[in-house]
């Protein structure tokens, strides 16, 4: 396979979007291609390489959803169970009602829980460069994350609308632990990682501050201006509060990501993630009923999320109106120092996985890569 167009976009990402380093891996049938641009380490100039361990951010949500659907297939629970059934009282505060919020609501981001990422209790720790340095080694307990999930009132009734809420996935992870008696990490390993043979994939332990070799350094400019008040940030104004562009990125490789928990704390490789999304998109991991439920999608319109996409259970499907009827399914996520996505056409087992060692910069970069690889013109 030749991927001149993809390579040109990778090269352009370094210059246009100020990405330190970027990799792309493509699998189509039995053919594989790998390309890169930029560096894995700004200090040494070391290039990026195949097989690097990277943080996949919110792509971890799909691991949570797959684990719960596997438990349903086993008859342990139903994703239409209420939260109250498994975690009595956890959601019955601040205007929430655990008797009306189901596991399905949590996994589809339609629970009515507020957008957890905007909670001042967390965002103040990492809002500016100085606060990030002070708090980069903080650890979060599950109990703290569950309290965070309901620390602000609901933004809607269950099932009413899509709103991207890490808090819903924190609750989902706690249900996995309550139902099984095992840790979230152990259940993901048992029900997803081992069955798929993902040898470079694991849920990152709460006390880890680095990654196995090989791995790139992680760099971030995802900070508000010094003195900005996180409590004043909204989905509408956050971009105007970001620090001035052009500042040198901060090395954030040593950073405890326990605040991701079951909403996004999986370390993997591009190759492993290609196998993962291929299995989820084609139905080779889950039984037919659970596969169907995973890909029953809801509109994300008005949810301040990725454009031109619908949301399933922990993952997305591009709107067929922009893919000319073609099915393209994927996972993705971003956090300080990392942005990852993988998109697949399950009809011909054609998958693209991309990682940058800095956070999300623009949907245009993703859509340019998808157009070059899949031939679909997606506007931002």
TrEMBL record:
It holds the Pfam family Beta-lactamase. This is Beta-lactamase family protein. Residues 7-358 form the Beta-lactamase-related domain. Transmembrane segments: none annotated. InterPro entries: AmpC-like, Beta-lactam-related. It comes from the Bacteria.
